[in-house]
Amino acid sequence: MTTAYDKKNASILHIISVLEEYRVKYLIIGSYGAIIQDVDLPLTDIDFLPSRSLANAKRLAAALVELNVKYRKDGHPVSEPDATDMLRNDPRKIISGESWNFTSKFGDIDIVIYPGGFNGGYDEMVKRSKKVDVEVPGSGDVMTLPVADAYDIYLSKRNVSRPKDRIHLKAFREVVKQHHKKN
After folding, report:
1. Most buried among 38, 68, 80, 102, using CB within 10 Å?
2. For the domain bounded by 4-182, which CATH number is listed?
3. All structural domains of the chain with their residue ranges
């Protein structure tokens, strides 16, 4: 039986496969990045931390256009201005802000340029990143995903300190404990 989690996970993996198809350099951060490292959090969306090179911005913009993204504000799609027009006309914009909130028929997508407390963005977080194998629901296939270190995701959530992030911090207890054991 396919669960709601499996359906959401399959949609997120589809979004990731489009970024992979366009050879976008990114890390998965946020809740999904923690979930695939065994942190018990709700699955709501996917957060990407892209490399800020211009070539990568162009590839990311093309992938987002293929996904037919719309801007998202307060959890709802916003049709004006047109996100795909911005991405087609000036892909540099995607790496010029701090974050972008989009939605698509596959789910919500957040592009984060500077995660909380990581002013070096991708270049800083990639140093401790890892590859995590995730099974594609219903297929038996496995995707190997680039993901930020779980402790870095914890630090980012702690530094941003939005109400939902503060609630999520409790789920990182084991991650914090293991980090302190190693260091």
Report:
1. 102
2. 3.30.460
3. 4-182
